[in-house]
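Practice problem: Secreted protein
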Amino acid sequence: MMFTFALLSACLVVSQVSSSLASAGVAFFNPADNGGSMFDNAGNGLGEPLNVIISGLSSPAVLTESGVVNFARAIGFSEECLDIHLGAPQSANLGDGNGFVNQTIELRQDFGNAELGTCLESLIGGNHFRVYVQNGSLADSGALFLAVSQEENVTTGHTIAPDGYDVGRDLLSSAAIGTTSFDGVTYSTTAENITGLMPAGSTGVNHGIAVDGIVTLLTVTIQ
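Answer key — structure tokens:
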């Protein structure tokens, strides 16, 4: 009887520990572990790098569509000009069991005006990013994978600027690090550069633009 009680107690402890670990979450899962990729599908067998990840360990309110829009506004981005999107959406396979899924939203640099600033970006170019959510049953981290790039003006058809993937990533990360706020919400953001997730070079990269292989992991906490 004593042995049975001890066994039940041990099982209860293990169950509590397992539950605690499960609820702790993870920053993200490597898409390649389940057949995904750190490049989205831009067509013609080419892709754009998912070069920034907003960690699944960020505040839950950040990891929603409305939450990432508000955070984006805090760091100088907003929704597309007059909600008009030109061009087809791109898709990504994050290895979470959902297969290829279209971008959740695309956000553009707003040049200090969250309402109409993205209209200026559409004309003169600037930074922008697409958002993909890792939330399938095989890898439900809740992390947001961002395809960030600096693009040129409308006369060039919004093509990516030379070195525009790495430049776009670095500009977004620099704007995010530290304390930012928008609409009464204050964020504290830390960054970590990760190598080994994405190959360096231009093979398979849209527009033939080489990337340095670095992915920046942002952890965003609401204060």
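Discussion: DSSP finds four helices and ten strands in the chain. Students who identified this feature from the tokens alone can consider the problem solved.
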